[in-house]
Amino acid sequence: MMEEPGIILTREPYDDSAWRIRLEASNGEFAAALVFYIDGASLLEFARRLSAFPKSIQDEVCFRLGSREGSWAYYLSLRAYVFNRSGHTALEIEIDNREPGYCHARAAFAMAAETASLNELGRKLAGWVERPGDPLVWRARSS
Hints:
Blueprint: E1 6-12, E2 19-26, E3 31-38, H1 44-51, E4 60-66, E5 75-82, E6 89-96, E7 106-112, H2 115-130, E8 136-139
Antiparallel strand pairs: 1-2, 1-8, 2-3, 4-5, 5-6, 6-7
């Protein structure tokens, strides 16, 4: 698991048109991981919006997959947001594997990240969707 604040995305082998992705995220104190399935192109809109974030002090960019309710297998939320009037930004991670009983795991935490660092994540993510061979490794930079 990661010790520095950031994210690692790895596309794992899978016999289907959907991508099997392992997400590892940490803010340096808390860490979580989730394997999820998605069409790689579904990540592009989030990547594009993150590359241009923020458009205003109230702006936020979200990627959500699954739900905490209903019959979804898991829930994943990545949310970039401005957390003060000075324009400082952060990335919030929420993960719920929705497994039953003792296998259930849930995590929610945020990490401060400079706007330029979040924009870099968006650009890296867009490039990774086009060429997902190597893991995407992003380290949050903050001042």
